[in-house]
Amino acid sequence: MADRLYTGPIIEMHIHAHTRTTDDLRALKKAGVVAVVEPAFWSGVDKRFPESFFDYFTEILDFEHGDMPYGSRRAHKFGIEHFCFLGVNAKEADNIDMVNAVLEMSDDNGNLYRQYLDHPRSLGVGEIGLNKNGPNEIEALSRQLVIAGDRNDPVIVHTPHDYSERPEDRYKLAGTRIIVDVIREVYGELDSYPFIDLDHTTEETIEMAMGLPGCLVGFTLYPTKMSIERVIPLLREYADQFDRFMINSSADWDDSDPLAVPKAAEVMMREGFSREQVRQLVYETPRRFLSQSAKFVKIMGRG
Q: Among 88, 109, 218, 228, which residue has the fewest nearby CB atoms (within 10 Å)?
């Protein structure tokens, strides 16, 4: 990426940074990434105890930056601001007893989950959502949306993946429909839901996502989710609502590319999108969404 066409700033809206190497962070900085968002996710095995969630939250909150009393300060060292969203991810939400324990556990200072949400690097609730659309997952989603609403926190919502071509394993369309219904049930019929990022949107679900007024729509550039070549026709089709879109890599320990977003910016420039449009997608819209958190504004400023 030595001769970049797009040289503006980038905010990576969804990356599991603690699974990536220092070489990845160095490359992200070189590619123009100024900030990354790390939503809580399934770490490869189900957690056995509620306390394990809080150990995990501590790890992703305190590992990457220099304003904490301990940690490796990796992202900070490379000049990248690192933020988190916290929640019980959809893949572990079917264990509703575990979900309830995490959301209700307290110590002498009060509710533990809310204390972690108060952390200076925690910007909101996420990634929460659905995996296989079961009733426990729906209850967990609803409970966490209520908490976010009580706090006026933005939310990153995970829409389910389709695991195979078998109809019984195709969850995305039905799950997105359920998520939209739950959002409306929890928050009411609003004129705008700018505090919601409906992530992992595809051709199959974009009309439904765009039908939730003001909701931000995330496209995930990941081998088993979407490619930039698939996203470009959607950006052209919805060009009049371009400021509602964001792209991310969701890069983790599986086959994924932490540079998916800067690479997509280059493809878009070659495909004839303007520099202003690319900047809107990779920086301005993410910044507007995250600026709903005063903690983000305090660290990044409003400029």
A: 109
